[in-house]
Amino acid sequence: xxxxxxxxxxxxxxxxxxxxxxxxxxxxxxxxxxxxxxxxxxxxxxxxxxxxxxxxxxxxxxxxxxxxxxxxxxxxxxxxxxxxxxxxxxxxxxxxxxxxxxxxxxxxxxxxxxxxxxxxxxxxxxxxxxxxxxxxxxxxxxxxxxxxxxxxxxxxxxxxxxxxxxxxxxxxxx
Length: 174
What we know:
By secondary structure, this protein is α/β, with parallel strands linked by helices. The chain is 22% helix and 34% strand.
């Protein structure tokens, strides 16, 4: 039976899991240093990998690298769980001002940008920097590309905790 790997755990430290983060504020007896971009130590050894509100911290290219690394960690029949803020909910809430405090309004914006290939990228700028944003559907598609059977689930509270109302959860199985 493999390990359960909580990548980029932050304050979401889970008992019985290998909790890793890059931020020294979280290091301690239950959290080790580890980067989502380099998970070689755990390749093919994890029964479950959890990315809880981590993916949006990366650019799209870096997020693809993170998903590649997480998929490589999975044992046969292993599970990758991706939890993140849903771009649709975040942008809608920002536009109507429902859950962003007034001082955060200037830190969130909705941007679109054409690419050289004629695609439109949609970005959210929040926490003062440009971040990748996702919907459950876009993560399902990304996991399928990595050979995982993936689907979005409706019950988010188990994985997203207090942030369940703004989040999606996608589960992919090798």
